[in-house]
Amino acid sequence: MLIKNNAKSSNSDDEEDEYPPAHRVLPLPRGRMLVFNETIIQGILNVTPDSFSDGGKFSKSVEDALAQALQMEKDGAGIIDIGGESTRPGAEAVGIEEELRRVLPIIERIREESDIP
Residue 107 and residue 50: Cα distance in Å, rounded? Predict the structure, then answer.
């Protein structure tokens, strides 16, 4: 996985396209791109109290969620999806404020301990 700046120089018409096919690129803010140039294992960390996969196990403690994220990285995850809203059938939707309240503390702790995206 590689992050590239998408800004092109003024003579970019003469330059060979150096980016992979669009299906392997995720646009990021400020003209950057996340380029998937290899297979990546994605860890899923649910921090919802009604998670169907783990029963809300990681919604109660930021430190438990952090330990799980670090274990995922140790086990080979190259990226972690942190879920703040359940996808369980019949689950109630949550507002953006609640979702942020759930995910931001663990994202901040992971950033302190790891560079994993």
Answer: 19
Q: Residue ranges of the domains in the chain? A: 2-35, 41-113
Between the two ends of the chain, the Cα-to-Cα distance in Å is 10
Q: Let me know if 69 is exposed, middle or buried by CB neighbors in 10 A (0-12, 13-18, 19+).
A: buried
Residues 72, 64: contact at Cβ < 8 Å?
no
Report field, pTM of the whole predicted structure over 0.70:
no
Cα Rg for the chain, rounded, in angstroms?
18
**Is 32:6 a contact under the CB 8 Å cutoff?**
yes
For 26-70, what is each residue's pLDDT tens digit? Answer: 887 778 777 777 788 999 999 998 887 787 888 889 999 999 999
Please report how many Cα atoms fall inside a 13 Å half-sphere around the Cα of residue 107, on the Cβ side: 12
Q: From start to end of 7-76, where are the E strands?
A: 25-27, 32-35, 41-46
